[in-house]
Design brief:
CATH class: Alpha Beta
Largest sheet: 11 strands, mixed
Oligomer: single chain
Structural class: alpha/beta
Bound molecules: ligand PBG
Number of domains: 1
CATH superfamily: Aldolase class I
CATH topology: TIM Barrel
Shape: globular
Radius of gyration: 20 Å
Low-confidence stretches: none
Mean pLDDT: 97
Length: 326
């Protein structure tokens, strides 16, 4: 008989045996930015997540920094009437996200700013790229994504995070950044991004649902494995610093194999809106007794699978929990 229960006998023993440890500096907190002043509005599809105006997000960031949470992923949310076919507001100079980055960097130079690079929240059709003959056109989208990244880099973004799933998006961004002397701006590529049903609450939050069709011609089919590895390999070849698997909770196997294939690369995993809301909803309905323990378990599982960095709407709650347990 193997006596393995000895490793579980007390809290001290369990702590000593633990192999996977969450740390606040491994988390990125997504933030949704809207125009206006003094806006902090809870998003109806995402309990505990808010729309912030650029002035109010400063308070949120200050609060997070108190808990040691210093990495933020910004999403812009604009009014329908400002959207057009080409998603122009995404890459106009001094746009909403550029203004927000500049403000954050002015007040909190140590905050690490990541920005989502995708057109879906800025196009009137809600697709991530330009439409040409009813097809989401890859190559004509690339310069616009690169321009969007340059706008953010100029404003002071530390990382740009292309999520449009256009082939060649990392290379297009890297080239434009480098030729404009932003070679120190890094890329966190949404490499293995699957076409998932769990983005629903986010699309309400970002008002970025496609007005027709779906994203299956560019985001990955969830029945595939090797394409995820190929996507990561292509992004690395094109010059990305960090790679990502998304979603996370339902794709632990992909996190594990991408990590094993690219051991020396920083791997992020995105615990997405639907995965977040499943825990929230189960807790609200009384099916899960302790929300904090439930999200700690899920986030630990994502880390255990091989993620170095976790993007989560629970990041702030997790940071609070980690500080309390110190
Ligand atoms: C933009 C983007 C999406 C998410 C992150 N960036 C939506 C999508 O691809 O439809 C989803 C994040 C989440 O669900 O939390 N393309």
């Amino acid at each position: 008989m193997k006596r393995l229960r000895q490793f579980r006998i007390t809290q001290e023993v369990r702590d000593k045996a633990a192999e996977v440890m969450l740390k606040t500096d491994q988390f990125i907190y997504p933030l949704f930015i809207v125009e206006g002043l003094d806006v902090k509005r809870e998003i109806s599809s995402m309990k505990g997540v808010f729309h912030f105006s650029p002035d109010r997000v400063l308070h949120e960031i200050e609060d997070c920094l108190r808990y040691g949470l210093n990495k933020f992923l910004l999403f812009g949310v604009i009014e329908e009437k400002l959207k057009d076919e080409k998603g122009s507001a995404a890459y106009q100079p001094d746009n909403l996200i550029a203004k927000t980055i500049a403000q954050i960097k002015l007040h909190f130079p140590n905050a690490v700013i990541f920005t989502d690079i995708c057109l879906c929240a800025y196009t009137n059709h809600g697709h991530c790229g330009l439409i040409n003959n009813s097809i989401i056109d890859n190559d004509s989208t690339l310069p616009l994504l690169a321009q969007m990244a340059l706008t953010h880099a100029r404003a002071g973004a530390d990382f740009v995070a292309p999520s449009a799933m256009m082939d060649g998006q990392v290379a297009a961004i890297r080239n434009l950044l480098d030729s404009n002397h932003y070679s120190s701006t890094k890329i966190m590529a949404y490499s293995a991004k699957y076409c998932s049903n769990f983005y629903g609450p986010f699309r309400d939050a970002a008002q970025s649902s496609p007005s027709f069709g779906n994203r299956k011609t560019y985001q990955m089919d969830y029945r595939t494995i090797s394409q995820g590895i190929q996507e990561a390999a292509a992004d690395i070849e094109e010059g990305t610093e960090w790679i990502m698997v998304k979603p996370a909770h339902t794709y632990l196997d992909m996190i594990h194999s991408v990590k094993n294939n690219f051991k020396d690369k920083t791997l992020a995993a995105y615990h997405v809106s639907g995965e977040y809301m499943m825990i929230k909803a189960a807790f609200a309905a009384g099916y899960i007794a302790d929300e904090q323990q439930a999200f700690t378990e899920v986030l630990t599982a994502i880390k255990r699978a091989g993620a170095d960095i976790i993007i989560s709407y629970y990041a702030k709650e997790m940071a609070k929990t980690l500080m309390k347990n110190q």
